[in-house]
Amino acid sequence: MLDVSDAVRAEIGEAEAERLLAGENTPGEYDCTSCRSRGNTSTERTSTVLFVGEETAVLAFAHAACIPSQVVTVSEDQLQGAVRTLTEADQQAETAEARSSAAQAAPTVGTAPEPGPRQAVLGVTCGQVLIEDTLHPAIVVEPTSPIARPGTNGPGDDFLPLLIEHGFHPVTDVAQLPPPVTGWSVLLAMGQLHAVLQPPASPGTQPVAWWQAHQPLAVTEGWRTAAARNHTVVVYAAPVGSIGQQPREDLLREALEKAAADGVLVAGTMPLAGT
């Protein structure tokens, strides 16, 4: 019932992979590293997920229905934080939902490499959006300042044109599910949001973090459940000043609808995936 991908096998070695497949080093029951609900390696298909930092590697487990077996590269600080999360899970259980709820509409910031010419600070808000009678997990991205096109230093804002060139779709109706953005994905690991990944710069290389959390961002149980059910996340983006920091999901929805009506909203659906 255990899946060990070629990438994970290459990292941990054949001997360790065979021990895992034989059930020698499997935990039996586990908390899914994606949706955080309980799983069992003996009764349901389970993915091995290897988190690799600069100096540390941690092997975790996830429902195969949530994410495939893979190697996920994260910063050493993020990995150490994840280790603390795993070892202190019992003590944190009572407060996890409170932290998650508080983070639902509270944005975090990260840095964005390409498609912009310089690193830009992006605000990220997580919430659920009702589309076609189904709740979808959503990420709303809004920079804190205008984004210039590579090679220019003008005062204009090319954030949306650059994203459209990279596969995002203009949104005219928030009630309709946006098409996929080819090659992009959302990294949700150990129940927290880590990054939005864009396609690699060249074939055979790893995806690049377009946005990466300074610290993994907590999301609500409802958000994680919707993500596990849909296997996709809707990522919206709008220029600075279009959305704002909305404290509730109904206000976030109103801001998205206004941005769409003003023609300043793009979006795309992205799968839950790592590197």
What does this structure look like?
With 275 residues, this protein is an alpha+beta fold. The protein has two domains: 2-87, no CATH class; 100-271, no CATH class. It contains seven helices and 15 strands. It has helices at residues 6-12, 14-21, 76-87, 89-103, 159-165, 221-230, 249-261, and strands at 2-3, 29-31, 38-40, 46-52, 57-63, 70-73, 108-112, 120-131, 134-143, 169-170, 185-189, 192-198, 208-218, 232-237, 266-271. The strands form three sheets. It has a nine-stranded mixed beta sheet, sandwiched between helices. Strand 8 (120-131) and strand 9 (134-143) form a beta hairpin. It is globular, with a radius of gyration of 19 Å. It starts with a strand and ends with a strand. Residues 90-106 have a biased composition (Low complexity). Residues 90-117 are annotated as: Disordered.
Give short descriptive properties of this protein.
275 residues, alpha+beta, 2 domains, nine-stranded mixed sheet, four-stranded mixed sheet, 7 helices, 15 strands, 33% strand
Write the layout of secondary structure elements.
Blueprint: E1 2-3, H1 6-12, H2 14-21, E2 29-31, E3 38-40, E4 46-52, E5 57-63, E6 70-73, H3 76-87, H4 89-103, E7 108-112, E8 120-131, E9 134-143, H5 159-165, E10 169-170, E11 185-189, E12 192-198, E13 208-218, H6 221-230, E14 232-237, H7 249-261, E15 266-271
Helix pairs in contact: 1-2
Q: Mind describing the biggest β-sheet?
A: 9 strands, mixed
Structural Rg: 19 Å
Mean pLDDT: 80
Instruction: Assign an overall shape.
Output: globular
SS-based structural class? Answer: alpha+beta
Q: How is the quaternary structure best described?
A: single chain
Total number of distinct structural domains: 2
Q: Could you give the count of β-strands?
A: 15
Distance between the termini: 23 Å
SS summary, helix count = 7
- Percent helix among the residues? 25-40%
What is the N-to-C order of secondary-structure elements (H for helix, E for strand)?
EHHEEEEEHHEEEHEEEEHEHE
Q: Detail the poorly predicted runs.
A: 89-119
Side by side, the strands of the main sheet go: 10-15-14-9-8-7-13-12-11
